[in-house]
Amino acid sequence: MMKKILELNNVNVSFHTFAGEVKAVRGVNLHLEKGESLAIVGESGSGKSVTSKSIMRLLPEKTSEIKEGEILFEGRDLTKLSNREMEKIRGSEISMIFQDPMTSLNPTMTVGKQIMEGLRKHQNLSKNEAKERAINLLKLVGIPNPELRINEYPHQFSGGMRQRVVIAIALACNPKVLIADEPTTALDVTIQAQILDLMRDLQQKTGTAIILITHDLGVVANLSQRVAVMYGGTIVETGTTDEVFYNPKHPYTWGLLSSMPKLNSAEKELMAIPGTPPNLLNPPKGCPFAARCPYAMQVCVDHMPDVTDVTSTHKTACWLLDERAPQVEPPEAALVGGAR
Amino acid sequence: MVRFVLKRLLYMLITLFIITSFTFFLMKLLPGSPFNNEEKLTDQQKFILNEKYGLNDPVPVQYLNYMSNLVKGDLGVSFQYDNRPVSTMITERIGPSAVLGVEATIIGTIIGLILGIAAALKHNTSIDYLSSLFAVLGISIPSFVFAGVLQYYVGVKLGWLPVALWDGPKYHVLPALSLSVFVIATVARFMRTEMLEVLGQDYITTAKSKGLSNLVVIWKHTIRNAMIPVVTILGPLAINLITGTLIIEKIFAVPGLGFQFVSSIQLNDYPVIMATTIFYSVCFIIVILIVDILYGVIDPRIRVAGGKG
């Protein structure tokens, strides 16, 4: 067993809105091992971004709250740290890449300065040392002519190049954990592939553990060793990428896999999961997916399913895995490639 | 940069030509003549006066004469004030107006920025509400109300500062303060909105995710970006004050330009009307140019576009 670097135990996050309390994350358990890459997948509003932002404590202070649970980073509970202590961890131990490179860089500051800021804060480098390191970082993320480009402003970079800058900023202080919140969503497909290649490459070079947040299963297969599937603020299935892709157990995972376009499929239309995600202002007391699940039973509506261990790494929260439940086979469309 | 400024200077001349022509013909549409009020003059005498100043010529001829004098730098003489050259009348009067205007703009901008920033950082708290309340009052209550209040309490009751007239720095405080209220309110309101807008941007989250302290995030990443739109409104705001404000000048008996301008319109003193309008326009156009250049200093995206243009 490898060493757990980050562990989320029963994390609950709520937002206080005019309409009431929105329970965006409800009892999430996750762990990240040193140097591994974990993907969190799910549709919009499933709580994946909120989970990641709560690790960084970047949620708005006034309107949100980590209500319960602990987030252990190397044994320290991040939810209990003061803002001061948290500043020391942000950017140096745990850092983050954001979705939209067009808006995540400050338009009135040169990219060099934006990279150097974190370095100077966390590593006490002199101006020249920080500049040298920034040039090396730009070289590392594949930006040509870094000596010149370091003095340029974000608007002089293309989208893909900006995302490389964002990655350079995140990697500046050699973080132990890198959280990538949909890093390729805002990019076009060819650039997506380049950025994914870059991230895989950098992970091998630096040994940083990555939490990849995405709704793109293709990206997951590319980059991650383990997957957690989120729905309605809870994790419905986790396992190694192989387990979740080739032996999925949760009907929501089936739905996700079915709605992925396939090259060899004769079907002209893409499958979709009917219905909409639950309103987390009033979360259902049972399984959040019950309302959209074709296999739902009465018990699914009434009670939250327990987590069942399929293997030592593969866990699913679904009543279908209960021994009293009827045997259900996943639909044809959910079988990926050479599935069993 | 040089090309940019030269191009702008050319545009300025064209703009100025259009403004001058428009004003000239509009002014001629006004009823009455400069000498109508002089009841003691006979028609014969009025005719001679009109003849002397070329007012009997057809309007297009007067226009051409005026423009050719203008190109030579001759703004003409006042009809009302003993044939005094208009240019000296303006230079004599602009001093107090400009000093007051600059003072009010500086006071207003500094206090306004502080209020706006504080309101945004303490969004939805009593500081925010107080600052917003002040902004609404400052924008909706005319400056002469503040002028009166200040004169009465600070000038008369407390006797700390002179109530009116223009004789040294002490005399600047009350009129400058009354003028600055509107600036404070406008700048504060703008800065608050812009700060809130910038604080919600993704790059602020990026800055926080680097582990920067709140102070650094606000100082280096927020304020500068929020300042950009504020700079645009500062230009016109400042120029309005610098070129003189009739009411405040009148209340505080400041010998400024604003008062002279209004009386020249009442008296159909054509050369003074024209010269003051041209002077206002030149000031306005120059300030807009300065604002555009400042814009480029703050915002690198505009710097590049301007350099190419």
UniProtKB/TrEMBL annotation, chain A:
Molecular function as annotated in GO: ATP binding; ATP hydrolysis activity
Subcellular location(s) per record: Cell membrane
Alphabetically ordered keywords of this record: ATP-binding, Cell membrane, Membrane, Nucleotide-binding, Transport
Principal location listed in the UniProt entry: membrane
GO cellular component: plasma membrane
SUPFAM superfamilies: P-loop containing nucleoside triphosphate hydrolases
InterPro entries according to UniProt: AAA+_ATPase, ABC_Ni/Peptide_Import, ABC_transporter-like_ATP-bd, ABC_transporter-like_CS, Oligopep_ABC_C, P-loop_NTPase
Residues covered by the ABC transporter domain: 6-257
Coiled-coil region(s): none
GO biological process: peptide transport
Top-level lineage group: Bacteria
The keyword Transport is annotated on this UniProt entry: yes
PROSITE patterns in the record: ABC_TRANSPORTER_1 (PS00211), ABC_TRANSPORTER_2 (PS50893)
Membrane disposition: Peripheral membrane protein
Keyword ATP-binding among UniProt keywords: yes
Membership in a protein family: Belongs to the ABC transporter superfamily.
Protein name, entry field: Oligopeptide transport system ATP-binding protein
Organism the protein comes from: Fictibacillus solisalsi
Lineage: Bacteria, Bacillati, Bacillota, Bacilli, Bacillales
Automatic annotation (TrEMBL), chain B:
Subcellular location: Cell membrane
Gene Ontology CC: one annotated term: plasma membrane
Protein's membrane topology: Multi-pass membrane protein
Claim: Cell membrane is one of the keywords in the record: yes
CDD domains associated with the record: TM_PBP2
Transmembrane residue ranges: 9-27, 98-121, 133-153, 173-191, 230-252, 272-298
Gene3D superfamilies: MetI-like
Domain called ABC transmembrane type-1: residue spans: 94-291
Recorded superkingdom: Bacteria
GO biological process: transmembrane transport
Alphabetical list of InterPro entries matching this protein: BPD_transp_1_N (IPR045621), MetI-like (IPR000515), MetI-like_sf (IPR035906)
Family: Belongs to the binding-protein-dependent transport system permease family.
Protein name per UniProt: Oligopeptide transport system permease protein
Species of the source: Fictibacillus solisalsi
Lineage, highest ranks first: Bacteria, Bacillati, Bacillota, Bacilli, Bacillales
